[in-house]
Structure formats: C-alpha cells, structure tokens
TrEMBL record:
The lineage of its organism: Bacteria, Bacillati, Bacillota, Clostridia, Natranaerobiales. This is Transketolase. Gene3D superfamilies: 3.40.50.970. CDD domains: TPP_TK. Belongs to the transketolase family. InterPro entries: THDP-binding (IPR029061), Transketolase_CS (IPR049557), Transketolase_N (IPR005474). Residues 16-271 form the Transketolase N-terminal domain. Keywords: Metal-binding, Thiamine pyrophosphate, Transferase. The keyword Transferase applies. It comes from the Bacteria.
C-alpha cells in the first residue's frame, strides 16, 4: 500500500530530524561517525515510524519487531530515532560518548533502551539477527527481524556464512537493508575490497533481493512492504545511499566517516538541514 501524502511528509521530516539530532550530538561529543549515520536516516524513519511493531511503553514485549544495527558505528543515527520515538529523552542524546552515559559509541543492549543487540565488531550482526529470527520460528512468533549492514562490512567472511544460514533455514522473517553508500573508513569500497556484483551475490546465496534508492521514501517503503510479504526466503534490500546525506560538505567525502563537526561546521549543517524541511 502506498504512503499517503501526509505519511510521506511526516517520514521525510522525521528523517530530517534524525539528521539534525545526529549532527548535534556528534558535535557535542567531539567524536563519532556522521557519514554512515546520516546515510541511513530514511531507513530508520520508515522502520521506527511506519513498519516496525514497537512501543516505547512496552520495550520488552515478546512480540515486538527487532532491529540489529550490524554497522554499529552508525549508532548516533539509531539513537536519534530511538529518542524521537520516545525510548529515552531527546536531551539525553547530548551525553553521547560521555562518562556514565547510556549512549556509548557503539550499541549496548544491556544499558540502552531500544537497543536489541550489542554490535560494533563488523560482520557479526547478521549472525545475531539470524539467531533472533530462528528463535521466532521455533517459538512460533510472528515478529520480524531487521538488520542494517554496511557495504564495507560485507567484505567480512562471517557475513556470507550468515547469509547461507539465513537461506538454509528459510528465514522469511528476516529483512536485511544494505546501506550501499560506496565508502568505508579507508576509501571507496570498490578499491579496498570490491564486493560487486552485490545483488548477484545475495541472490546466489538464496536471498530475495530488492534494489532501491535509499533516500526515496516511497521506494524504500514499497521494498520493505514487499519484503514483509516474502515467504521461504530472507530478503536483502540493497539501498543506494549517499554517505553524509543532507550535509553538503560531508556528502561523498570519506574523511567524514569518523570525525565530528566543529561548532562552525555544525551551524552550517543545521542551516542546510533546516532548509530541507523546516525549522531545525
């Protein structure tokens, strides 16, 4: 079912808010990973505010949907979505990476509300998502498990072992989203260790594969909707994105993989994000 104009506007604006809160907290922390956090804002907006069955008032509902952020360094974006959704106060975002904060530099399932799996060592999140999805099958639960991966991350061999496992056990309740922004910490993904052809690889491993513009709310919504209807196969949504999306001086610049904006750079980012969708 297509999004209504009101839903689409809301989700686009929520993506903008996720970006606003992300750059603000990173500037306050003085460290972190803006590029890969900003590139997945639309994914997080759609998952947390449209598709996932979750309720901040019932954080441990056994029937809730789960998200595993396998590319754990992108957690500032996830923290923004969780705070806006109501899992913890938005003001708490300013404690990112500070002593005694619940918001560490990578996801921590033991201390942070809404975090389903501790991640950060790249390549491991899909295996964890497999376990959660398989558990749902064994327990005859109908919740879905989502897993966001990075395109540099899929250079890890464990990803492909996990991909075989997902297919072997016909985990149709598992939906992967690949943040295909083409860059990783050391440069362009294709130059470091070229994973292409990406869609052919996932299909060869037995997955249903969908390709979308990862910043197009309608395309991404339709892909997630189709994935939820898939039977007997896991689905990988290959979402083409722009690293640092929404902040002109960060877009497609590898140096912004892992550094925080200065106060002056923050103000420029907020001005640009405000122009996208209203007052930041």
């Amino acid at each position: 079912m297509s999004l209504t104009p009101k839903e689409k506007d809301f989700l686009i604006d929520t993506s903008r808010k996720i970006r606003v809160e992300t750059v603000k907290m990173l500037a306050e922390a003085g460290s972190g990973h803006p590029g890969g956090s900003l590139s997945m804002a639309e994914m997080l907006s759609l998952l947390y505010f449209k598709h996932m069955n979750i309720d901040p008032e019932h954080k441990l509902d056994p029937n809730r949907d789960r998200l595993v952020l396998s590319k754990g360094h992108g957690v500032p974006g996830l923290y923004s979505a969780l705070a806006i959704k109501g899992f913890f106060p938005v003001d708490e975002l300013m404690t990112l990476r500070k002593l005694d904060s619940r918001l560490q530099g990578h996801p921590d399932m033991k201390n942070t509300p809404g975090i389903e799996m501790t991640t950060g060592s790249l390549g491991q999140g899909l295996s964890a998502a497999n376990g959660i999805a398989l558990s749902a099958k064994l327990d005859e639960k109908d919740y879905n498990v989502y897993c966001i991966l990075g395109d540099g991350e899929i250079q890890e061999g464990q990803i492909w072992e996990a991909a075989m496992t997902s297919s072997h056990y016909q985990l149709d309740n598992l939906i992967g989203i690949l943040d295909y922004n083409g860059m990783q910490i050391d440069g362009e993904v294709q130059d470091i260790m070229d994973p292409r052809p990406i869609t052919d690889k996932w299909r060869a491993f037995g997955w249903n594969v969908l390709e979308v513009d990862g910043h197009n709310i309608e395309e991404l919504h339709n892909a997630i909707s189709k994935a939820k209807e898939q039977s007997e196969k896991p689905t990988m949504i290959v979402a083409k994105t722009i690293k640092g999306k929404g902040v002109s001086y960060m877009e497609n610049v590898v140096d912004w993989h892992g550094k925080a904006p200065s106060d002056e750079e923050l103000q420029k980012a907020l001005e640009e994000l405000s122009d996208e969708g209203g007052k930041a």
